[in-house]
Amino acid sequence: MSEHLTTALDLASTGLPVLPLRRGKVPFGNCSTCARNACGGRPNMKNPGPCQCPDVCHAWASATTNPHVINSPVWERAWHQAVGIGYHPGGAGLTVVDLDTPTAVAWARQALPPTRTVSTTRGEHWIYQGAMRSVNGVREGVDIKSTMAYARWRGHGTGTLTALPDAVRALAASKPSTVRRPSVVTVAALAGGGECCHRTPAYLERGIAMAEQRITEARSAVHATVYRTFLAVLSTHGRCGCLTDTHTARLFTAAQARGETVRHCTDAWANARTALGM
């Protein structure tokens, strides 16, 4: 039994829903049947939707406390490849304030009540008792991870859990969504009034799906991969008004699943547009 599996079973026994994380600190991709949520996906933990896939699918929604699932032959391959353990904070009634920079940590020490603290490679996780919606980029270097999100397990930390304060809830009050949707690129269609070939649904869908896959499967240089992918999408589809908020949100979601911040996604999108003279 691998070390990660042993730890995962111990955590699950305390009520913490866990999942394996692969290289890049990200969940394993969906299986071929569930690719791009063709199965219907799992929108939330209370209503898992039509998919009952036994594989390590659907990212945070695969997190479980069931020892039979965690230790199943289907999950065994993933645990052998795993580089870490993720968990679903909201599923355990917790909220993680992810402080990604020393400046963010200094701010939290002034603005938030003390609670259990876990050191990370770039900052700290402050863990509170109580769940809320997850929102990225509530402040510079600060993300909130709770329902429908995952955090990486980095140990039990120090300090005593305290109740989720209003100060944390207030951080998310003005944020409508975890994914910031950039403005749609609107450019006139082909000269002479001809129909744009990119409006063919299958052509555009294939392009967006390939872009999502490229980001998801990046094993290194994620920042650069996200930028190059955004550049390629805009180069092909950005000059004829094909792209909608739904398409760009899908790309942002794929990038954030690989650990990119909302700010980086927005900057990469803007830089790609600038490079193409849009």
Structure, briefly:
With about 280 residues, the chain is an alpha+beta fold. The chain has helices spanning about 5-15, 65-70, 75-80, 100-110, 165-175, 200-215, 220-235, 245-255, 260-275, and strands at about 20, 25, 85, 95-100, 115-120, 125-130, 135-140, 140-145, 150, 160-165. The strands form 2 sheets. Strands 4, 5, 6, 7, 8 and 10 form a 6-stranded mixed sheet that branches. A 4-stranded antiparallel sheet has the order 2-1-3-9.
- Poorly predicted sequence stretches spanning 5 or more consecutive residues: 177-195
How far apart are the termini?
A: 54 Å
Please give the largest β-sheet.
6 strands, mixed
| Category by helix and strand content | alpha+beta
